[in-house]
Amino acid sequence: MKIKSGSNLSKVRKNNYASILGTIYQQGPIMRNEIANQLGITLPTVTTTIKQLLEDGILQEEPLRENFPSLGRKASLVDFAEDSGYAVGIEWSPVGIICCITNLRGKIAGKKKIAFDIKNISYREMLLRTKHCVDELIKETGVDHEKIIGAGWATPGMVESENGILVCSSVNYVSWHDEPIQKNLSSLLEMPVCIENHVRARAIGQDMFERKERPDVYLYYFAQMGISCCVMADGEPFGKGRFGTGDIGHTIMEWDGPVCDCGKKGCLQAFVGEDPLLRQIRNLLEMGKAETLHKLCEDPKKPKIVEVAMAIDCGDEELKDIVFPAVRYMGISIANIVNLLNSELVVVDCALMNSQVLRKYLSEIVLENNLFQEELDLKIEFIQANRYTGARGACAMAIEKFVIKNISRE
Fold it and tell me: What is the CATH number of the domain that holds 335?
């Protein structure tokens, strides 16, 4: 989340508001004078803004630590009142509709997934199913509707977030084009809605909710059914509109490789995507091989990627023969992007990487193919993947836009 420099000029008062609130969100609990010093604005400006936010219930005061030095009037820290508001997150994914509700700090209050084959589902039907999912989730969690600040929505594909338009979906066999999704969902859900590409939403969620110290520029690499890479710059996804979807799944790794779902040969997605991987693994199980995986599977006819990751860690050698080459292609693709941008950090979001063995192997491949091994102190950070990171990231988008940047109050 990018924090703009503050100013005392009245014409940029709104920027001061977002800067102050953004600093508290990233660094809270924090003292008022620290905020003023960091942003280069006067203490009275900070104090006045915080006073209003305390009255609104968005912020709360916390006592200083007992050993904290203080002269004169006893000071206090300020931080978000995390349960003062909630956000709804929605992802239209290849497996259906995934929703969650979080408080202002990203703690999930409830989640819901409606699984179905979205092929040939009309845009209108998706809207209606989304409303049903969100209504049911709000009812199940018991969250006060008045406390919901808005919703974030995300999907694979090209999204114009500023105009509220789903330009096109990248999910196979789906034909949604130039749909006014923001306007439609706002009307249906009766709340403000913001929209974004699903990987960019995940990256925003990680950056906001985890509050880790990260470089100014780093990569968020997501591999599931498709493969995408979001470049994070100064706490925000790089690129806007039709530039910046980050889809790298259809880059060619072998000119005469296996046929991808897109019709081309040798795409990265044909090697690394969950669907082609699981097809090979199902064939292995049908031949009576990969016994360790067979024992771990809830349904051996329908193995899951998380089960595959567990079996790899348990030493399933026959499974490694399929998975290791895929991970090698993934590592090479990451190294290619690192070599292009000289990023010092890659955040990897991939269910297959829940395996410690595969994390080690992927790291080795990336570092082996890193052109500037000695000059670049490259770090690889792994996320414990789950199906709700997209919806949770959409919650973060809503919090950033409707609370921190206060767009809904314009």
Answer: 3.30.420.40
Cβ-based burial of 253 (10 A; exposed 0-12, middle 13-18, buried ≥19): buried
Residue 375 lies in a domain: yes
pLDDT given for residue 140 in this prediction: 97
For the record, the structure tokens of 165 come out as 């338009």
Secondary element (H or E) of residue 272: helix 268-272
Residues paired with residue 155 on neighbouring β-strands, in sequence order: 197
Query: Cβ contacts of residue 356 below 8 Å, gap of 6+?
Result: 313
> Is residue 409 very low, low, confident or very high in pLDDT (cuts 50, 70, 90)?
very low
| Boundary (domain end) residue, out of 80, 109, 134 | 80
Using CA of residue 162, residue 166, residue 167, residue 172, what is the dihedral sign? positive
Tokens linked to 78: 């300020």
Q: Is the Cβ–Cβ distance between 215 and 343 less than 8 Å?
A: yes
- Domain co-membership, 261 together with 157: no
Cα of first residue to Cα of last residue in the chain, in angstroms, is 20
| Chain centroid, CA 100 distance in Å | 13
Q: How far apart are CA 40 and CA 12, in angstroms?
A: 14
User: Is residue 158's pLDDT more than 70?
Assistant: yes
Tokens of 304: 């899951």
**Residue 165, domain extent:** 86-207+389-409
The SS3 of residue 298 is coil
Give the count of domains, the chain: 3
In this predicted structure, the answer to whether residue 7 has a pLDDT above a threshold of 60 is: no
